[in-house]
Amino acid sequence: MRSLRHMVSAVMLLAGFFTLSAQAQYYVVEQIDKGFFISSDPTITHLWRSDLGDDAKATLVYIPGGDGSALWKQTSRSEPRHQFYQTLKRLSQKSATSGAFHVVIYDNPTKFVDQRTLTDRASSDHKVRIESVIRHYSNLLKKPIWLMGHSSGGYSIAEFQRYIAKNGKADLVQGLIFSAGREEASFASEVNKPMLFLVSEQDDCRTTSPSSNQRIYERVRQESKAATEFVLIKSAQSEARDPCSSGFHMYFAAGEEVGRVLDDFLSRHSPSR
Asked: What pTM, to 2 d.p., does this model score?
């Protein structure tokens, strides 16, 4: 029954892929590995292709925070409307930035229950799932992959960096972007690839303070031989909602600034076309 559900879901998603515009493409990514601790559930992903087409410089794969969900149901499988996803979309648009980057949004098939100790994000299933998505888009688009994690997603990319360093797969990723990441995150020694740390200067989420992000940045910078930069976002505004899912933490009203910072760093540290 479970397999049938997955098949029906995949067929519906693929049907949706063919009816959407070139800007809004969905791909169902199968797991590259199997095992007792690895779920066979596929991963739903959303792709914005660069306006430059084959002349794009790289692909950015984004791992959400919170429960790992990208909120597809709330958008009826159309383009994700959350303002932060629209900020990332800017990287694919010549009208907003260089437009030189494909952008992929990762949507975990099940919601993460443990958002306090983050054990789900350190699991074999999660790390293999991220690797599966990276390999899929590396093969599909033929461009270097940048991996970005926001909030708890920052913890995900730290665990994934440990995983690829330990297993001789470091070349899977061109570089990393740690955005308003959780204070619990710790990167494997000698990341040795370009890395950008990004956080609002007024981020008021308890577990993602600017000071904790800067401490993580300093540890990486001291050990890495590659470019490592730290940027405070200054134009974000507050919202009368949970400070860990809105406002300063989510760069509310700072889309232009965030897009510019990301575009600049990615452009300077991506291979020439």
From this structure: 0.89
